[in-house]
Amino acid sequence: MDIIFLGGLQIETIIGIYDWERETKQTVILDIEMAYDIQKAAETDDIQHTLDYKAVSKRIIAFVGASSFFLVERLTVEVADIIINEFKVPWVKVTLNKKGAIRGASDVGIIVERGRK
Ligand SMILES: Nc1nc2c(c(=O)[nH]1)N=C([C@H](O)[C@@H](O)CO)CN2
């Protein structure tokens, strides 16, 4: 199966368990990989035969920007579920990086895989 990916998608959102995190937006960075058979799009050169990564990015930016979850686990699984259910991809891998959340660590977050390749 082929992969369509979106990398380094930065979105401001309310995320976290501490009082200050409920009031101040923070940046999460999403890397998304989506299994998709791109053969027909390659043959026809027609956007109708593929997954429109612009449509995926718009949906995820709107969802994450309006969300206010406590845990990165919840947010990451919600993003994976939207992609599986609304964009009909058979498999998705979502990496959510809450950069700077841990002093001394450059990166921290969650990696979720849903579906089958
Ligand atoms: N497994 C998790 N651990 C922690 C989370 C989380 O979402 N999942 N969140 C926090 C705080 O909100 C953190 O981001 C601020 O330091 C702590 N641990």
TrEMBL record:
InterPro entries: Dihydroneopterin_aldolase (IPR006156), FolB_dom (IPR006157), GTP-CH-I_C/QueF (IPR043133). One of its GO terms (cellular component) is cytoplasm. Pathway: Cofactor biosynthesis; tetrahydrofolate biosynthesis; 2-amino-4-hydroxy-6-hydroxymethyl-7,8-dihydropteridine diphosphate from 7,8-dihydroneopterin triphosphate: step 3/4. The keyword GTP-binding does not apply. Catalyzes the conversion of 7,8-dihydroneopterin to 6-hydroxymethyl-7,8-dihydropterin. Belongs to the DHNA family. PANTHER family: DIHYDRONEOPTERIN ALDOLASE 1-RELATED. This is 7,8-dihydroneopterin aldolase. It comes from Methyloglobulus morosus KoM1. The gene is folB.
